[in-house]
From TrEMBL:
Family: Belongs to the alpha-carbonic anhydrase family.
GO MF term list: carbonate dehydratase activity; zinc ion binding
Designated name of the protein: Alpha-carbonic anhydrase domain-containing protein
GO process annotations (BP): one-carbon metabolic process
Amino acid sequence: MRATTCCVLLATLIYNAGCDNWQEWWTYDGISGPGYWGLMNPQWNMCSKGRRQSPINVEPDKLLFDPFLRQIHLDKHKVSGMLHNTGQSLVFRVDKDTKNHVNISGGPLAYRYQFEEIYIHYGTENQQGSEHHIHGYSFPGEIQLYGFNKDLYHNMSEAQHKTQGIVGISLMVQIGDTPNPELRLVTSSFDKVKFKGASTPIKHLSIRSLLPDTEQFMTYEGSTTHPGCWETTVWIILNKPIYITKHELYALRKLMQGSQEAPKAPLGNNARPLQPLHHRTVRTNINFHQQNNNCPTMYKEMHYKGR
Ligand SMILES: *[C@@H]1O[C@H](CO)[C@@H](O)[C@H](O)[C@H]1NC(C)=O
Ligand SMILES: *[C@@H]1O[C@H](CO)[C@@H](O)[C@H](O)[C@H]1NC(C)=O
């Protein structure tokens, strides 16, 4: 406990001294782990105080069918970028000089969002990995596509702490024999980003082709799952997993948190623990009612008449 207080204090001091290297500090375990993110940096206080946080466990029998949710639109064309081992996660970011950005709109979104980055979360064992859980089940991995609100903001760093700033599209990753071919473009580069700080280019990636073949999704309002946990994220969880092979997962599990000289621990298990729902609604475009299930719905049998 004393070591913790001391570290937090030290971190605060460094922050106050104008340390601009904050991205380096946090981890997924120990005294810089998720329980302390909110204490490490005043700008991250939502990580401990927030009540609309992510990830969450999605309970299928508590989903609310919303007939007004539209289809999600994501542009087809390909983008190029860099895959980074940040020491905390595996992150793909589109090239800064990209001219033809991939737009995300529709679904629950009131604005047009510009796709910007992919975060890859995974476990070192098959029983865990995804940040969001479905009915208490954790998938071996989760791929999160982040975009920022292009109608209101200039870039991700501006949008992430502003209202309606971000969209997160969540793809659950399951182990299978027929892997997602687009994912292969990413997985084939894993061996080039084995250590922290390593990055490698990935060219002509179609974000749209990464998506599973479904129009069904769940959506709720939450936060980024990494610091500063800003409650500016509209989450969209697609209702089908995409597949990764055992072999690809094996390559992923070889990545390390540290450098070649000091590799530290494996990069996996980079999932923030589940956050309480606190009376939020998780909506879906899946019409359980039509499928003769007894699920909550926004369709009402009762009508009010105005005069
Ligand atoms: C994406 O949105 C931008 C405006 O933010 C627009 O200029 C561009 O044409 C859109 N791209 C496509 C492929 O529709
Ligand atoms: C993001 O946009 C803001 C506002 O225009 C600007 O001040 C800032 O420098 C930009 N940041 C990056 C990383 O481009």
